[in-house]
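JOB MANIFEST
job_type = single_chain_structure
chain_count = 1
residues = 112
[input]
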Amino acid sequence: MVTGVMNTEGSITVNFDAVPGAAAYVPHYGPANEADKTKLVFMGYTETTSWTLAAADVPTHKVGDKFHICVQTFNVKGVGANDIEKARDLHDNHLGSEWSDEVVITATDSTP
């Protein structure tokens, strides 16, 4: 199960159930109001069951816009100097799980 919320300072936090054997998780998201999973082109990276997208990295949006986020599981950790490189490594070089059901988060603030 995947849950999420837009925090008061504008970041987005997503929490999800642990998957046995998982070493890393890659959240996939797209621009505001993009529900087509093939267009969720941005990725995050975490080795825990929680991930936060910093407010500065949340795509442009206005109050009421929706963010669709799915999580993919990998049985290896990503390689790279930062989370973006680690997510890209997993996406490009390793077979991950099917994507989770999506969580839809409603924007409670606007991009300045």
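[summary]
The chain has a mean pLDDT of 95.
The longest helix spans residues 83-93.
exit_status = 0
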